[in-house]
Amino acid sequence: MEEKQVKKRRIVLIPVPAQGHVTPIMQLGKALYLKGFSITVVQTQYNRVSSSQDFSDFHFLTIPDSLTDSDLHSLGALPFILKLNQVCEESFKHCFSKLVQEQGDDEIVCVVYDEYMYFSQAAAMAFQIPSVVFSTTSATAFVCRSVLSKVNAESFLLDMKDSQTQEKVFPGLDPLRYKDLPTSAFGPLESIIKLYYNAVNIQTASAVIINSASCLESSSLAWLQQKLQVPVYPIGPLHRAASASSSLLEEDRSCIKWLDKQKPSSVIYISLGSLALMQIKDMLEMAWGLSNSNVPFLWVIRPGSIPGSEWTESLPEEFHKLISERGYIVKWAPQMEVLRHPAVGGFWSHCGWNSTLESIGEGVPMICRPFTGDQRVNARYLESVWRIGVLLEGELDKRAVESSVKRLTVDEEGADMRKRAIELKEKLEASARNGGSSYSSLDNFVNSLTTP
């Protein structure tokens, strides 16, 4: 009797074309590849991931006629994502149809799409292939988006304009205040509510994967499991499950040699993400505060992060003097390696979810300076729930900067935070090990794809 040829199983990934979204979905791809799946990454024409050493066995596909860099600059981030979903639905169906026809020995078992690439659902439905939502943020931020997707935009806007209401805890989301909710600096509230409505409305998706762990967010994960009515798989932190480099910017490794010369736990590492813009006035206040703290610091200043300036050339001479004594500046850093370095004692961050997980994963407490969206949710949790962060709110002022840096690196409070951060690190490590909750969750997801 002839033996049946065993088909390989292929998973199609669809990332949002932004660093904070690309990093975890490529880590997910690597984790699934290590479980025996073939991986296809479907990209738009903007911000494509290159096939690096980590992804040499992945298949990359570009959706034709999608939006480009110039569309992002002319539209802005939020309208860009909304339009991308309109533009890509039909062209992705056509693209996906060819992929299905040409699959040969690789049977497509699942489409995993970033929650903001919801156009993907239509194609998966048309070809009767299961689709899975991937959330690159915390489970708590997902809960917030679900709640915000149902609010009346007009009355919520009035609440948000009232300074007293802003400070109040939002009903059902303790300890999050109104001002901590993930509204966006990248567009009007109506647009963000529309985006959230589309993103959290999982429709025909058969499951949700979240880059988080139950030791960090058990109650938010339980809320989602109950509300979504499909399996929720917390499989984070993905950088532990599958380390993979997918930086869209070139990393400057010279900072590691500089860190090698510093004392243990003495350095503040500063990196405010791949999107935030900084005003010269704020940069000067930071430089003064850092200089006055007498603490050495490694500062990532991303090219283009200062409006009207390619890099730091528009900053006054005063700035360069202030940082020359104890500071080291790079355009982009190998963040995981930096956070793992024994010289690093604190991380001043925008509190994007990847940076938050990486910092907790290395037991490094944080100075929290969120700019937009879910960063505020993460910052509040770092300060009030996990108690490993100093929240720096309001206008930047050199005294507040100096005080925050000292609280983290010099004061007893900082030592307590470091202790708690190391305890959380150990819990996260346990969840990612064989038999841990995140490890088992990934196995359960893989088994759900192989069970007829």
Quick take:
This protein is of the alpha/beta class and 452 residues long. 46% of the residues lie in helices and 14% in strands. Helix 2 packs antiparallel against helix 3, helix 3 packs parallel to helix 4 and helix 17 packs across helix 18.
How would you explain this protein's 3D organization?
Helices cover 46% and strands 14% of the residues. The strands form two sheets. A seven-stranded parallel sheet has the order 3-2-1-4-5-6-7, sandwiched between helices. α5 (139-148) crosses α8. The chain contains 19 helices and 13 strands. The protein starts with 7 loop residues before the first strand and ends with a helix. The protein has helices at 19-34, 69-75, 77-101, 120-126, 139-148, 153-161, 163-166, 189-200, 214-228, 238-241, 254-260, 280-293, 317-324, 335-340, 353-361, 375-384, 398-409, 412-432, 437-450, and strands at residues 8-14, 38-43, 59-62, 106-114, 131-135, 207-210, 232-234, 267-271, 297-300, 327-330, 344-349, 366-368, 389-391. The longest helix is centred in the N-terminal third of the chain and has 25 residues, at 77-101. The chain has 452 residues and is an alpha/beta fold. It folds into two domains: 8-243 and 435-450, Rossmann fold (3-Layer(aba) Sandwich), CATH 3.40.50.2000; 254-429, Rossmann fold (3-Layer(aba) Sandwich). The chain is globular.
